[in-house]
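sorry for the late reply, my laptop died twice this morning and i had to redo everyting from scratch. anyway the thing you sent over, i finally got around to it. pasting the sequence first so we're on the same page, its 72 residues, then the predicted structure underneath. double check i copied it right bc i was rushing
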Amino acid sequence: MATKIIVDCSTGVTTEVELTAEEIAQAEADAAAYAVRKAEEDAAAAAKAAAKASGEAKLAALGLSADEIAAL
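ok and here's the structure:
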């Protein structure tokens, strides 16, 4: 079973409590939402990298050197 740890900072007492069904469902929903958001961010980063590489290739095809492209 999934548990959570509760620490009372004023007394230093630590208690381990089982998660409720609602807390488990929320944790699962949060994990799924994170996975979707992470996949979207990864796809956006890949698209940006592809666009940058394409742009650099086009500039190189126009005759710019690697140093000139990097200076842009």
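The chain has one domain: 3-71.
thats about all i looked at so far, will dig more tmrw
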